[in-house]
Known about the structure:
The structure holds two protein chains of two kinds. By secondary structure, chain A is of the alpha/beta class.
Amino acid sequence: MTAIVVANLVKRFGALTAVRDISFDVASGQVTALLGRNGAGKTTTIEILEGFSAPTSGTVRVLGADPHRGSRAWRARIGLVLQSTSLDGQLTVAEALSLYGGLYPRPMAVAEVLDAIDLAGDAGTRIGALSGGQQRRVDLGIAVIGRPEMLFLDEPTTGLDPEARRRLWTVIQNLTASGTTVLLTTHYLDEAQYLASRVIVLADGRIAADATPEGLRAMGGAPVIRFRLPAHAPALPGRLAQHESQHEVTLPSDDVAADLALLVGWARDYDVDLTGLEVGPPSLEDAYLSLTEATSHA
Amino acid sequence: MPRMLAAQIRYQLTLLTRTPRVFIAGVLMPGLLLALELGKRHASSSTLTAAVAGLTIFGTLSIAYLSNASALVVAREDGVLRRWRASPLPAWAYFTGRMIAAVLSADIAALVVLLAGVSMAGLHLSAGATASLIAAVSLGALTLACAGTAITPLLPNGQGANGVLAVTYVPLLIFSGGFGGGVQGQPHWLTTAMSYLPVRPVVDAATHALEHPGPMPARDFLVLLGWAAGCLALSARFFRWDPVRPAHARRPQPA
Protein backbone atom coordinates (compact mmCIF):
# COMPACT_ATOMS: atom_id res chain seq x y z
CA MET A 1 0.00 0.00 0.00
CA THR A 2 1.21 3.50 -0.83
CA ALA A 3 0.30 6.26 1.62
CA ILE A 4 1.81 9.20 -0.30
CA VAL A 5 2.24 9.69 -4.01
CA VAL A 6 4.03 12.81 -5.27
CA ALA A 7 4.52 13.09 -9.02
CA ASN A 8 6.25 15.99 -10.77
CA LEU A 9 5.35 18.41 -8.00
CA VAL A 10 6.12 22.06 -8.68
CA LYS A 11 5.29 25.00 -6.40
CA ARG A 12 5.95 28.61 -7.31
CA PHE A 13 5.43 31.77 -5.23
CA GLY A 14 5.52 34.51 -7.85
CA ALA A 15 9.00 34.48 -9.36
CA LEU A 16 10.32 32.07 -6.74
CA THR A 17 10.20 28.34 -7.45
CA ALA A 18 10.21 26.63 -4.06
CA VAL A 19 9.73 23.04 -5.29
CA ARG A 20 11.07 21.92 -8.69
CA ASP A 21 9.50 18.85 -10.21
CA ILE A 22 9.95 16.33 -7.42
CA SER A 23 8.49 12.82 -7.35
CA PHE A 24 8.46 10.21 -4.62
CA ASP A 25 6.19 7.61 -3.01
CA VAL A 26 5.92 6.67 0.66
CA ALA A 27 4.78 3.17 1.57
CA SER A 28 2.24 2.65 4.36
CA GLY A 29 3.85 2.20 7.75
CA GLN A 30 7.14 3.80 6.70
CA VAL A 31 8.79 6.58 8.72
CA THR A 32 10.37 8.97 6.22
CA ALA A 33 12.43 12.05 7.02
CA LEU A 34 12.52 15.04 4.71
CA LEU A 35 15.83 16.82 5.22
CA GLY A 36 17.17 20.03 3.80
CA ARG A 37 18.50 23.45 4.63
CA ASN A 38 16.22 26.45 5.17
CA GLY A 39 14.53 27.27 1.87
CA ALA A 40 15.16 23.80 0.42
CA GLY A 41 11.42 23.22 -0.04
CA LYS A 42 10.66 20.94 2.93
CA THR A 43 7.92 23.02 4.51
CA THR A 44 6.37 23.90 1.16
CA THR A 45 6.22 20.21 0.29
CA ILE A 46 4.75 19.13 3.63
CA GLU A 47 2.18 21.95 3.55
CA ILE A 48 0.99 20.75 0.14
CA LEU A 49 0.76 17.19 1.49
CA GLU A 50 -1.17 18.44 4.53
CA GLY A 51 -3.62 20.25 2.24
CA PHE A 52 -2.79 23.82 3.30
CA SER A 53 -1.71 24.87 -0.16
CA ALA A 54 -2.22 23.66 -3.70
CA PRO A 55 0.57 22.63 -6.06
CA THR A 56 1.35 24.88 -9.03
CA SER A 57 1.56 21.70 -11.10
CA GLY A 58 1.99 17.99 -10.56
CA THR A 59 -0.01 15.38 -8.70
CA VAL A 60 -0.19 14.75 -4.97
CA ARG A 61 -2.18 12.00 -3.27
CA VAL A 62 -2.27 11.27 0.45
CA LEU A 63 -4.19 8.15 1.51
CA GLY A 64 -5.66 8.15 -1.99
CA ALA A 65 -7.07 11.69 -1.90
CA ASP A 66 -6.05 15.11 -3.17
CA PRO A 67 -5.09 16.82 0.13
CA HIS A 68 -6.18 20.27 -1.02
CA ARG A 69 -9.71 18.97 -1.47
CA GLY A 70 -9.56 16.67 1.55
CA SER A 71 -12.97 15.86 3.02
CA ARG A 72 -13.78 15.72 6.74
CA ALA A 73 -13.50 11.93 6.59
CA TRP A 74 -10.03 12.25 5.06
CA ARG A 75 -8.95 14.79 7.69
CA ALA A 76 -10.03 12.32 10.39
CA ARG A 77 -7.33 9.94 9.07
CA ILE A 78 -4.54 12.52 9.27
CA GLY A 79 -2.57 13.83 12.26
CA LEU A 80 -0.39 16.93 12.23
CA VAL A 81 2.29 18.49 14.35
CA LEU A 82 2.78 21.93 12.84
CA GLN A 83 6.10 23.74 12.64
CA SER A 84 5.36 25.83 15.73
CA THR A 85 3.28 25.01 18.78
CA SER A 86 -0.37 25.79 18.05
CA LEU A 87 -2.32 25.50 21.27
CA ASP A 88 -4.72 27.54 23.39
CA GLY A 89 -2.72 28.33 26.51
CA GLN A 90 -5.91 28.83 28.56
CA LEU A 91 -7.01 25.17 28.26
CA THR A 92 -5.69 22.41 30.48
CA VAL A 93 -3.89 19.48 28.85
CA ALA A 94 -6.83 17.14 29.49
CA GLU A 95 -9.38 19.67 28.18
CA ALA A 96 -7.44 20.15 24.95
CA LEU A 97 -7.08 16.41 24.37
CA SER A 98 -10.73 15.78 25.13
CA LEU A 99 -11.83 18.63 22.84
CA TYR A 100 -9.84 17.40 19.85
CA GLY A 101 -10.56 13.75 20.60
CA GLY A 102 -14.27 14.49 20.25
CA LEU A 103 -13.77 15.28 16.56
CA TYR A 104 -12.71 11.76 15.58
CA PRO A 105 -14.81 8.64 15.08
CA ARG A 106 -12.76 6.34 17.36
CA PRO A 107 -10.38 8.42 19.43
CA MET A 108 -7.86 7.11 21.94
CA ALA A 109 -8.85 7.61 25.58
CA VAL A 110 -7.49 10.85 27.05
CA ALA A 111 -5.75 8.91 29.85
CA GLU A 112 -4.05 6.67 27.29
CA VAL A 113 -2.71 9.69 25.37
CA LEU A 114 -1.60 11.39 28.59
CA ASP A 115 0.41 8.28 29.44
CA ALA A 116 1.84 8.08 25.93
CA ILE A 117 3.05 11.68 25.99
CA ASP A 118 4.26 11.33 29.57
CA LEU A 119 2.05 14.13 30.90
CA ALA A 120 -0.38 12.22 33.13
CA GLY A 121 0.81 14.29 36.08
CA ASP A 122 0.02 17.53 34.27
CA ALA A 123 -3.47 16.66 33.00
CA GLY A 124 -5.01 19.55 34.94
CA THR A 125 -2.26 22.07 34.17
CA ARG A 126 -3.01 24.91 31.77
CA ILE A 127 -1.02 24.53 28.58
CA GLY A 128 0.32 28.07 28.86
CA ALA A 129 2.07 27.09 32.10
CA LEU A 130 3.96 24.15 30.53
CA SER A 131 7.55 24.23 29.24
CA GLY A 132 8.25 24.31 25.50
CA GLY A 133 9.04 20.60 25.43
CA GLN A 134 5.85 19.70 27.32
CA GLN A 135 3.77 21.87 24.98
CA ARG A 136 5.30 20.07 22.02
CA ARG A 137 4.24 16.77 23.59
CA VAL A 138 0.68 18.11 23.91
CA ASP A 139 0.86 19.02 20.21
CA LEU A 140 1.87 15.45 19.50
CA GLY A 141 -0.91 14.08 21.74
CA ILE A 142 -3.52 16.07 19.81
CA ALA A 143 -2.02 14.86 16.54
CA VAL A 144 -2.37 11.20 17.50
CA ILE A 145 -5.57 11.16 19.56
CA GLY A 146 -7.67 10.35 16.49
CA ARG A 147 -5.52 7.27 15.71
CA PRO A 148 -4.27 8.73 12.41
CA GLU A 149 -3.14 6.50 9.58
CA MET A 150 -0.82 9.27 8.39
CA LEU A 151 1.14 11.56 10.71
CA PHE A 152 2.97 14.69 9.55
CA LEU A 153 5.63 16.03 11.91
CA ASP A 154 7.01 19.39 10.78
CA GLU A 155 10.23 20.06 12.71
CA PRO A 156 8.75 18.62 15.90
CA THR A 157 11.79 19.20 18.10
CA THR A 158 13.12 22.53 16.82
CA GLY A 159 14.01 24.79 19.74
CA LEU A 160 13.94 22.03 22.36
CA ASP A 161 16.85 21.20 24.63
CA PRO A 162 18.60 17.83 24.09
CA GLU A 163 16.76 16.11 26.93
CA ALA A 164 13.35 17.30 25.75
CA ARG A 165 14.23 16.18 22.21
CA ARG A 166 15.16 12.71 23.43
CA ARG A 167 11.91 12.41 25.38
CA LEU A 168 9.89 13.46 22.36
CA TRP A 169 11.73 10.96 20.17
CA THR A 170 10.80 8.19 22.57
CA VAL A 171 7.17 9.31 22.51
CA ILE A 172 7.16 9.41 18.69
CA GLN A 173 8.77 5.99 18.50
CA ASN A 174 6.20 4.48 20.86
CA LEU A 175 3.33 6.07 19.01
CA THR A 176 4.51 5.03 15.59
CA ALA A 177 5.33 1.46 16.57
CA SER A 178 1.74 0.54 15.67
CA GLY A 179 2.41 1.08 11.97
CA THR A 180 1.35 4.69 11.40
CA THR A 181 2.93 6.21 8.30
CA VAL A 182 5.05 9.20 9.29
CA LEU A 183 6.53 12.02 7.25
CA LEU A 184 8.94 14.05 9.32
CA THR A 185 10.80 17.21 8.42
CA THR A 186 13.81 18.10 10.50
CA HIS A 187 17.10 19.96 10.55
CA TYR A 188 18.58 17.42 12.93
CA LEU A 189 20.39 14.53 11.29
CA ASP A 190 20.56 12.54 14.50
CA GLU A 191 16.76 12.84 14.70
CA ALA A 192 16.37 11.50 11.17
CA GLN A 193 18.77 8.67 11.92
CA TYR A 194 16.99 7.79 15.17
CA LEU A 195 13.41 7.91 13.88
CA ALA A 196 13.39 7.31 10.13
CA SER A 197 13.99 4.28 7.97
CA ARG A 198 14.24 6.44 4.88
CA VAL A 199 15.71 9.91 4.25
CA ILE A 200 14.84 12.22 1.37
CA VAL A 201 17.25 15.16 1.08
CA LEU A 202 15.90 18.27 -0.61
CA ALA A 203 18.23 20.95 -1.89
CA ASP A 204 17.13 23.99 -3.83
CA GLY A 205 13.67 22.50 -4.36
CA ARG A 206 14.96 19.23 -5.82
CA ILE A 207 15.57 15.75 -4.43
CA ALA A 208 19.31 15.47 -3.85
CA ALA A 209 19.16 11.99 -2.33
CA ASP A 210 16.60 9.35 -1.39
CA ALA A 211 18.02 6.49 0.67
CA THR A 212 18.13 4.79 4.04
CA PRO A 213 20.22 6.67 6.64
CA GLU A 214 22.99 4.10 6.14
CA GLY A 215 22.69 4.41 2.37
CA LEU A 216 22.96 8.18 2.67
CA ARG A 217 26.15 7.82 4.70
CA ALA A 218 27.58 5.55 2.03
CA MET A 219 26.79 8.20 -0.60
CA GLY A 220 29.01 10.64 1.24
CA GLY A 221 32.10 9.27 -0.46
CA ALA A 222 35.31 7.67 0.79
CA PRO A 223 35.72 6.10 4.25
CA VAL A 224 36.88 8.49 6.92
CA ILE A 225 39.70 8.16 9.47
CA ARG A 226 38.92 10.22 12.57
CA PHE A 227 40.80 10.83 15.77
CA ARG A 228 41.30 13.55 18.34
CA LEU A 229 44.84 14.85 18.86
CA PRO A 230 46.07 14.87 22.44
CA ALA A 231 47.21 18.20 23.87
CA HIS A 232 50.76 19.19 22.81
CA ALA A 233 50.89 16.52 20.09
CA PRO A 234 53.84 16.81 17.71
CA ALA A 235 53.28 18.04 14.15
CA LEU A 236 51.47 15.57 11.91
CA PRO A 237 53.07 14.27 8.73
CA GLY A 238 52.12 16.31 5.61
CA ARG A 239 48.99 14.59 4.27
CA LEU A 240 47.43 14.15 7.72
CA ALA A 241 48.19 17.74 8.73
CA GLN A 242 46.04 19.04 5.89
CA HIS A 243 42.96 17.43 7.47
CA GLU A 244 43.44 18.66 11.02
CA SER A 245 41.10 21.25 12.40
CA GLN A 246 40.68 22.27 16.04
CA HIS A 247 42.74 19.29 17.28
CA GLU A 248 40.59 16.83 15.32
CA VAL A 249 41.71 14.93 12.25
CA THR A 250 38.99 13.91 9.77
CA LEU A 251 40.63 12.33 6.77
CA PRO A 252 38.59 10.99 3.83
CA SER A 253 40.74 8.14 2.63
CA ASP A 254 40.91 6.32 -0.69
CA ASP A 255 43.61 4.03 0.71
CA VAL A 256 42.79 3.34 4.34
CA ALA A 257 45.67 0.86 4.88
CA ALA A 258 48.33 3.31 3.63
CA ASP A 259 46.92 6.23 5.60
CA LEU A 260 46.64 4.14 8.76
CA ALA A 261 50.22 2.94 8.35
CA LEU A 262 51.37 6.55 8.09
CA LEU A 263 49.38 7.50 11.16
CA VAL A 264 50.49 4.52 13.26
CA GLY A 265 54.14 5.11 12.28
CA TRP A 266 53.87 8.71 13.39
CA ALA A 267 52.19 7.69 16.66
CA ARG A 268 54.96 5.13 17.39
CA ASP A 269 57.73 7.59 16.60
CA TYR A 270 56.33 10.19 18.97
CA ASP A 271 54.61 7.87 21.47
CA VAL A 272 51.17 9.37 20.78
CA ASP A 273 48.08 7.71 22.26
CA LEU A 274 45.61 6.79 19.49
CA THR A 275 42.73 5.85 21.80
CA GLY A 276 39.52 6.96 20.09
CA LEU A 277 40.79 6.33 16.56
CA GLU A 278 37.82 5.58 14.28
CA VAL A 279 37.65 4.28 10.73
CA GLY A 280 34.26 4.10 9.01
CA PRO A 281 31.89 5.55 6.46
CA PRO A 282 31.29 9.30 6.58
CA SER A 283 28.80 10.44 9.24
CA LEU A 284 25.27 11.26 8.16
CA GLU A 285 26.17 14.91 8.69
CA ASP A 286 29.25 14.63 6.43
CA ALA A 287 27.18 12.90 3.77
CA TYR A 288 24.34 15.42 4.06
CA LEU A 289 26.69 18.39 3.86
CA SER A 290 28.54 16.99 0.88
CA LEU A 291 25.22 16.31 -0.91
CA THR A 292 23.64 19.69 -0.21
CA GLU A 293 26.87 21.57 -0.97
CA ALA A 294 27.27 19.69 -4.23
CA THR A 295 23.69 20.56 -5.21
CA SER A 296 23.95 24.22 -4.22
CA HIS A 297 27.17 24.59 -6.24
CA ALA A 298 25.76 22.75 -9.24
CA MET B 1 -22.79 17.09 14.77
CA PRO B 2 -24.81 18.69 17.64
CA ARG B 3 -22.31 17.13 20.07
CA MET B 4 -19.42 18.70 18.12
CA LEU B 5 -21.14 22.10 18.14
CA ALA B 6 -21.91 21.87 21.86
CA ALA B 7 -18.23 21.06 22.51
CA GLN B 8 -17.22 24.10 20.44
CA ILE B 9 -19.55 26.40 22.41
CA ARG B 10 -18.21 25.02 25.68
CA TYR B 11 -14.63 25.48 24.43
CA GLN B 12 -15.20 29.06 23.32
CA LEU B 13 -16.96 29.91 26.59
CA THR B 14 -14.03 28.43 28.51
CA LEU B 15 -11.61 30.63 26.58
CA LEU B 16 -13.76 33.71 27.19
CA THR B 17 -14.18 33.08 30.89
CA ARG B 18 -10.43 32.52 31.29
CA THR B 19 -9.53 35.75 29.52
CA PRO B 20 -9.50 38.60 32.09
CA ARG B 21 -9.82 41.19 29.31
CA VAL B 22 -13.34 39.96 28.58
CA PHE B 23 -14.48 40.42 32.17
CA ILE B 24 -12.77 43.80 32.52
CA ALA B 25 -14.04 45.26 29.24
CA GLY B 26 -17.41 43.54 29.20
CA VAL B 27 -18.55 43.74 32.81
CA LEU B 28 -16.26 45.76 35.06
CA MET B 29 -15.87 48.82 32.82
CA PRO B 30 -19.59 49.23 32.04
CA GLY B 31 -20.38 48.75 35.74
CA LEU B 32 -17.86 51.42 36.79
CA LEU B 33 -19.03 53.84 34.11
CA LEU B 34 -22.61 53.30 35.22
CA ALA B 35 -21.67 54.13 38.81
CA LEU B 36 -19.88 57.30 37.62
CA GLU B 37 -22.77 58.30 35.36
CA LEU B 38 -25.30 57.88 38.15
CA GLY B 39 -23.13 59.74 40.63
CA LYS B 40 -22.63 62.92 38.60
CA ARG B 41 -26.23 64.12 38.45
CA HIS B 42 -29.73 63.51 39.64
CA ALA B 43 -30.74 60.90 37.20
CA SER B 44 -34.18 61.17 35.69
CA SER B 45 -35.88 57.98 34.63
CA SER B 46 -35.00 58.55 30.96
CA THR B 47 -31.37 59.40 31.78
CA LEU B 48 -31.10 56.25 33.85
CA THR B 49 -32.60 54.15 31.08
CA ALA B 50 -30.24 55.67 28.47
CA ALA B 51 -27.25 55.06 30.73
CA VAL B 52 -28.14 51.42 31.43
CA ALA B 53 -28.98 50.71 27.78
CA GLY B 54 -25.84 52.43 26.46
CA LEU B 55 -23.47 50.81 28.91
CA THR B 56 -25.04 47.41 28.43
CA ILE B 57 -24.25 47.70 24.73
CA PHE B 58 -20.75 48.97 25.59
CA GLY B 59 -20.20 45.58 27.23
CA THR B 60 -21.72 43.79 24.24
CA LEU B 61 -19.44 45.63 21.82
CA SER B 62 -16.37 44.91 23.95
CA ILE B 63 -17.10 41.19 24.11
CA ALA B 64 -18.55 40.42 20.70
CA TYR B 65 -16.51 42.78 18.54
CA LEU B 66 -13.31 43.85 20.26
CA SER B 67 -12.42 40.70 22.20
CA ASN B 68 -13.70 38.38 19.50
CA ALA B 69 -11.70 40.05 16.71
CA SER B 70 -8.47 40.37 18.68
CA ALA B 71 -8.73 36.77 19.96
CA LEU B 72 -9.24 35.54 16.40
CA VAL B 73 -6.13 37.41 15.22
CA VAL B 74 -4.06 36.01 18.08
CA ALA B 75 -5.37 32.48 17.37
CA ARG B 76 -4.44 32.93 13.71
CA GLU B 77 -0.97 34.16 14.65
CA ASP B 78 -0.42 31.30 17.11
CA GLY B 79 -1.38 28.65 14.55
CA VAL B 80 -4.51 27.64 16.51
CA LEU B 81 -6.75 28.42 13.53
CA ARG B 82 -4.51 26.37 11.25
CA ARG B 83 -4.88 23.42 13.60
CA TRP B 84 -8.67 23.73 13.55
CA ARG B 85 -8.64 24.00 9.79
CA ALA B 86 -6.65 20.78 9.57
CA SER B 87 -9.07 18.94 11.87
CA PRO B 88 -12.32 17.23 10.84
CA LEU B 89 -14.33 20.09 12.39
CA PRO B 90 -16.28 21.95 9.66
CA ALA B 91 -15.49 25.67 9.46
CA TRP B 92 -19.13 26.61 10.02
CA ALA B 93 -19.16 24.71 13.33
CA TYR B 94 -16.08 26.58 14.51
CA PHE B 95 -17.57 29.99 13.74
CA THR B 96 -21.06 29.10 14.96
CA GLY B 97 -19.59 27.95 18.27
CA ARG B 98 -17.58 31.13 18.53
CA MET B 99 -20.55 33.38 17.82
CA ILE B 100 -22.95 31.57 20.12
CA ALA B 101 -20.36 31.81 22.91
CA ALA B 102 -19.99 35.56 22.25
CA VAL B 103 -23.79 36.00 22.38
CA LEU B 104 -24.11 34.03 25.64
CA SER B 105 -21.25 35.98 27.24
CA ALA B 106 -22.74 39.30 26.13
CA ASP B 107 -26.12 38.24 27.57
CA ILE B 108 -24.57 37.39 30.93
CA ALA B 109 -22.62 40.68 30.97
CA ALA B 110 -25.82 42.57 30.10
CA LEU B 111 -27.67 40.93 33.01
CA VAL B 112 -24.87 41.96 35.38
CA VAL B 113 -25.05 45.61 34.21
CA LEU B 114 -28.85 45.52 34.48
CA LEU B 115 -28.61 44.21 38.03
CA ALA B 116 -26.10 46.97 38.81
CA GLY B 117 -28.64 49.51 37.47
CA VAL B 118 -31.38 48.01 39.63
CA SER B 119 -29.27 47.89 42.77
CA MET B 120 -27.46 51.23 42.38
CA ALA B 121 -30.24 53.43 41.01
CA GLY B 122 -33.45 51.57 41.61
CA LEU B 123 -34.07 50.95 37.93
CA HIS B 124 -37.54 49.50 37.55
CA LEU B 125 -37.28 46.36 35.52
CA SER B 126 -40.10 44.04 34.43
CA ALA B 127 -39.61 40.51 33.14
CA GLY B 128 -40.81 41.69 29.73
CA ALA B 129 -38.26 44.52 29.64
CA THR B 130 -35.47 42.13 30.63
CA ALA B 131 -36.46 39.64 27.94
CA SER B 132 -36.70 42.37 25.30
CA LEU B 133 -33.31 43.76 26.29
CA ILE B 134 -31.67 40.34 26.17
CA ALA B 135 -33.18 39.78 22.72
CA ALA B 136 -31.71 43.11 21.56
CA VAL B 137 -28.33 42.30 23.12
CA SER B 138 -28.34 38.83 21.53
CA LEU B 139 -28.98 40.13 18.03
CA GLY B 140 -26.51 42.97 18.59
CA ALA B 141 -23.83 40.57 19.85
CA LEU B 142 -24.38 38.27 16.87
CA THR B 143 -24.06 41.18 14.44
CA LEU B 144 -20.98 42.55 16.17
CA ALA B 145 -19.38 39.10 16.32
CA CYS B 146 -19.91 38.83 12.54
CA ALA B 147 -18.36 42.30 12.13
CA GLY B 148 -15.43 41.32 14.37
CA THR B 149 -14.81 38.23 12.22
CA ALA B 150 -15.12 40.19 8.97
CA ILE B 151 -12.55 42.79 9.99
CA THR B 152 -9.79 40.28 10.84
CA PRO B 153 -8.31 40.13 7.30
CA LEU B 154 -7.42 43.82 7.80
CA LEU B 155 -5.60 43.10 11.06
CA PRO B 156 -2.07 41.94 10.24
CA ASN B 157 -1.14 40.68 13.70
CA GLY B 158 -2.08 40.74 17.36
CA GLN B 159 0.13 43.75 18.07
CA GLY B 160 -1.52 45.93 15.44
CA ALA B 161 -5.03 44.62 16.04
CA ASN B 162 -5.97 46.77 19.02
CA GLY B 163 -5.03 50.01 17.26
CA VAL B 164 -7.15 49.28 14.19
CA LEU B 165 -10.04 48.00 16.31
CA ALA B 166 -9.95 51.10 18.53
CA VAL B 167 -10.21 53.33 15.45
CA THR B 168 -13.36 51.49 14.40
CA TYR B 169 -15.06 50.98 17.74
CA VAL B 170 -14.38 54.08 19.86
CA PRO B 171 -16.06 56.59 17.47
CA LEU B 172 -18.98 54.19 16.98
CA LEU B 173 -19.39 53.87 20.71
CA ILE B 174 -19.16 57.62 21.42
CA PHE B 175 -21.53 58.74 18.67
CA SER B 176 -24.01 55.94 19.30
CA GLY B 177 -24.53 56.67 22.99
CA GLY B 178 -22.59 53.62 24.08
CA PHE B 179 -20.99 55.42 27.02
CA GLY B 180 -24.41 55.96 28.52
CA GLY B 181 -24.62 59.73 28.14
CA GLY B 182 -27.11 59.85 25.26
CA VAL B 183 -26.48 61.49 21.88
CA GLN B 184 -28.14 64.91 22.30
CA GLY B 185 -26.65 67.81 20.38
CA GLN B 186 -25.16 65.74 17.56
CA PRO B 187 -25.52 67.07 13.99
CA HIS B 188 -28.41 65.50 12.14
CA TRP B 189 -26.17 63.97 9.46
CA LEU B 190 -24.10 62.21 12.13
CA THR B 191 -27.18 60.83 13.85
CA THR B 192 -28.47 59.56 10.51
CA ALA B 193 -25.11 58.02 9.60
CA MET B 194 -24.87 56.29 12.99
CA SER B 195 -28.35 54.85 12.61
CA TYR B 196 -27.08 52.82 9.64
CA LEU B 197 -24.00 51.51 11.46
CA PRO B 198 -24.28 48.46 13.72
CA VAL B 199 -24.02 50.03 17.21
CA ARG B 200 -26.65 52.76 17.33
CA PRO B 201 -29.49 50.40 16.35
CA VAL B 202 -28.55 48.07 19.23
CA VAL B 203 -28.44 50.98 21.71
CA ASP B 204 -31.80 52.21 20.39
CA ALA B 205 -33.25 48.71 20.59
CA ALA B 206 -31.97 48.31 24.17
CA THR B 207 -33.41 51.70 25.18
CA HIS B 208 -36.70 50.79 23.51
CA ALA B 209 -36.72 47.44 25.33
CA LEU B 210 -36.38 49.15 28.72
CA GLU B 211 -38.95 51.85 27.99
CA HIS B 212 -41.50 49.90 25.95
CA PRO B 213 -40.98 46.15 26.41
CA GLY B 214 -41.90 44.27 23.23
CA PRO B 215 -40.49 43.43 19.84
CA MET B 216 -37.51 45.37 18.54
CA PRO B 217 -38.27 48.25 16.14
CA ALA B 218 -38.33 46.81 12.63
CA ARG B 219 -35.83 49.32 11.25
CA ASP B 220 -33.19 48.51 13.89
CA PHE B 221 -33.79 44.81 13.34
CA LEU B 222 -33.31 45.12 9.59
CA VAL B 223 -30.16 47.24 9.88
CA LEU B 224 -28.59 44.70 12.24
CA LEU B 225 -29.66 41.77 10.10
CA GLY B 226 -28.20 43.48 7.04
CA TRP B 227 -24.87 44.03 8.79
CA ALA B 228 -24.78 40.45 10.03
CA ALA B 229 -25.48 39.06 6.55
CA GLY B 230 -22.98 41.42 4.89
CA CYS B 231 -20.23 40.64 7.37
CA LEU B 232 -20.83 36.89 7.05
CA ALA B 233 -20.54 37.19 3.26
CA LEU B 234 -17.30 39.19 3.60
CA SER B 235 -15.91 36.64 6.07
CA ALA B 236 -16.77 33.74 3.77
CA ARG B 237 -14.87 35.45 0.96
CA PHE B 238 -11.88 37.03 2.69
CA PHE B 239 -11.28 35.29 6.03
CA ARG B 240 -7.68 34.10 6.46
CA TRP B 241 -6.81 31.05 8.55
CA ASP B 242 -3.08 31.66 8.30
CA PRO B 243 -0.99 34.69 9.20
CA VAL B 244 0.51 36.58 6.29
CA ARG B 245 4.07 35.42 5.86
CA PRO B 246 6.43 38.30 5.09
CA ALA B 247 7.91 38.02 1.60
CA HIS B 248 11.44 37.39 2.95
CA ALA B 249 10.18 34.33 4.84
CA ARG B 250 9.19 32.70 1.55
CA ARG B 251 12.60 33.16 -0.03
CA PRO B 252 15.29 30.55 0.44
CA GLN B 253 17.53 31.53 3.32
CA PRO B 254 21.27 31.19 3.18
CA ALA B 255 22.38 28.18 5.20
